[in-house]
Records
---
Amino acid sequence: MASLRHIISILVIVIWSQASANILDQLPQESHTLEGYHIDSVKTRMRQAPLHNIEGVWQFLDNATTIAIERINDNASSQYLHQYIYRIVIIKPQQLSIEPGTIMGYISATAKKDHYEAYIYTDSSLEGILSIPQKFTLTLSDNHLAFNEYKTSVSINLWRWIPYIYRVGVSVKNTRPKGLDGCVRIYPQPTSAPLTPRYL
């Protein structure tokens, strides 16, 4: 009976993983570039309508790459991205081969306030084309946006079928806290706390 439950659990996980993969397959496997995409035009466009909490211009703390997060409102994107409300567009890349206007990924809201799901391209070619979209969770706190890669794993415990004397357990744990990777808002200008800590 116990082994049957284990088999059913494994099947459920495999089916769920396959469903996630199908969603991923709906996205373009490579990024494309929006022509004439500049920070001044982005700011002008954002000034013309009320912004959602996550919308704005953001800068990554580790490499100073600047991105825009904005609602998708063009018909071409809505054909295959109806569940994605926002897109992430690179304005000022760190890598010189990546052009401004390159789409970095897509974001959708979740049922939890200030928590989002995103598919982000995680690899780039020498020509500056982004590829290999992966799933992330995004958490918005004040004017900081934290990125966490969404990971799933399937483990099968075979030790129960081996005599006790041969059982050896190995456990690896990553102690680095989540939420350390991300970016800060630079537009609209935050009116509350400073973006970077001030030390006395």
---
Amino acid sequence: MPDRIYIKRGDSLALDCTAWLTPPKGADAGVSRDLSVWAPECQMRHAQTGMKVKMTVIVGDPLMSGRFVISARADETSKWPTGCWHADIQFTDMDTVKSTDTFIIQVLEDITT
């Protein structure tokens, strides 16, 4: 079952992420990816309506940490229909595309307006 992230409609969203190298067999794991050559993108799709939303991706120091943030402003999430959204992160360099496992963003109705 995919990981699930909960957010209330109209709230800000910021997901801190780190890209890790997939080491060859027998190699050391835990090395963050150099993002100077890999461009991360994130898109999510509503499970029922098919509506697609491209998320903002901000890369920190691309050479050092492999860290980036996926975000959406409150005014953006306020327009999202409630329900289950499927998302993944795609990394692209000049000739290679790699995607993460799918994860779920569950958008809930906001109580306080």
---
Amino acid sequence: MHALQPHHDPDLMRWAEPLIGDIISTSYAELKDEGREAQFLIRCQGMLWRALINGAGSVPLFHQEVLRAAGRLGLGESRVEEVNRQIVTELMLVIASRHARSPREAAQRSVQVAQAYGRLTGARALLQPQA
């Protein structure tokens, strides 16, 4: 069985990228006193999601860098994953709202987000130590 190839949708990225950035920034708002390290985490997680949605770039590498940056700030992997789940939830809600009159379009965009999240799950599996 062949894995579905990511579909680059410029319209999805056009509205999703600022939303993702807002979600990430708000999620880590308590880190504002951490300066450059907090900004680096926010940028890395944004780049991770850009790669996930575009289907381009090294998702495992971006994910690993996000986890390293979070670790330097005293945040665990569960906090990063909580933010990722919030991103997926918000994207799905916006898709449902934006495409309420076009179920086919809503379904296509929802599949893109689900595939992106699936690639993130695959990246996490690659980073797990082998037994």
---
Amino acid sequence: MLILLVLLNHSRSYAQLRPEALRFSVANETTSLPSFRLLKLPVHPAFNVGADFRVKSGKHWQKSLGADVYYYYHRLAEHAIMLDASYRLGYRFNFGLQVNLLTALGYKHTILPGDKYELKDGEYKKARHFGKPMANVKVGLGLEYPLSEKYSVTTDYKVMLAAPSGNIYIPFALNNFFGAGLKIKLENN
């Protein structure tokens, strides 16, 4: 009987963690203050895979709680891998377009793109660098438009604050992401 209760409890937990939608996107990352010069900025590729685990929808309003994994490459600064818990609040118009407020809180791990050197005994020597852990917060706006019952195209603009970034002179980093993607509703909804 105890084994049966454990199995039932486990299956209920799994059902709660089953994603209701998957999200894939590509973006451009910039290390700067938020800007409207989106097309004149240098290209630093970013990729995102996400899942919505809790989705509550009304006639116009939609709320979702999910998780995202990001990777971006900034040629002169860093590679970064991020894992975020995300929350979306959206308003769907009668013609299908949905405007979303995007928020996320998570972990960022950065890795330098080149070698790191330390000054030891008056001489620069190669040093090991396993990356730097940081906390991050993201806020953004997005648009979503359904192509069918299952597929939607998305675009969004997010601003991210990550800390601790450097020494006391630069305590945080500011990054922007402008991207487009695809959202896929899964059959188990």
